[in-house]
Model the fold of this input.
Amino acid sequence: MRRWIPRRRAGLLAGVVAAVAVVVVLLMTALGRDPSVIASPLVGRAAPNFTLPQLDGPPVTLAKLRGQVVVVNFWASWCADCQTEQAALDQTWRQFQDSGVVVIGINFEDSTGAARGYVRADDVRYPVVEDADSRTALAYGLRGVPETFVVNQSGRIVNRVIGPVDAATLATEINSMLATSAQ
Amino acid sequence: MNAAGPLRRARAGLPGLIVLVALAAGLAALVIVAAGGHPPASQAQQVQQIAAGLHCPICKDLSVADSPAPLAQQMRQEIARKLRAGESADQIRARFVAAYGDSVLMSPPRQGVAGAVYYLPWLILAAGLITAFVLLRRWLRAPPPGPLQTSPQQASPQTGPPQTGPPQAGPPRASPRTGPPQAGPPAGPPQADPPQLSAAQRRAVARALARLRAEEPG
Done:
């Protein structure tokens, strides 16, 4: 019986079809991803340690807070979104400070005077530290402000929020971690 | 003197020669590329080299070396600090990748799916070279162009123009297609070998013969 397609042509055709299929699969994989979502490699890993000077008070070392839930917030006085989320951070601090939760504000690319003015004007009560050379910001893979990292009692980053954070989200996460540690 | 032998030998060796020249050119290119990768002389150059390979996290399509952003400036200072502390370029890059992910690299990593960017062009080049080699060899082995011969009578030197290709040059010899020599005295004048036809030419001949037979009366 005569072959519909010669064997050599059939091999060539199969090769072309396979190559096109590979390209299509690669394109579909890449196009199906949301380019605005930047995955942080730090989530699930140990939070980079830091010892930074407080604006008004002794230096703060993250490693010394092991066993407590820590909310690390990067902010700047020139950042409008930081003003937006300030109320949520204050509320979290007031709500959970008696449960051993610590909120730390890390001032990023700012002047000490401007940072002090902001803290005074907004009546920020939680510890605020300065990252003068941005080394801590670089260690946390910061891409801008505000950014917030939630660190669990084991010192691991469990969440990273890019942009203004809301009090309800923080409360849900903190309650979940406190409940786990209480068991 | 018969020039067909040396010509045939030269044609047979040509693909090998082309492959050798291509391999030598590729090797020379690799040596030049390898020789160009000298370590930078000063620390400032090292900082520049590492920063040029890192993407500024807050910029669009700018490297840390080229960006005027304060964060990029801090990154350059951090690179200098790490170099002074004795860390290698790979260690410094690894630190930034640990914090920012692979997207901080200006060039994709060589591992994983992204690594295909590096290996695929070489695979395509190799496939192209092999294809070119096979086609070239087939082309060199094909008979030279001449009038299409469909029968031993037409293949006679008296009927067609003189041909210079291998089948016609040289002394008459038994062709594998003509079968074993038959016993008995040779009938008629010695005939030239039928030319080696490609599959497409054979099909065209068969079609032409079928058409002629169909047109024959009776």
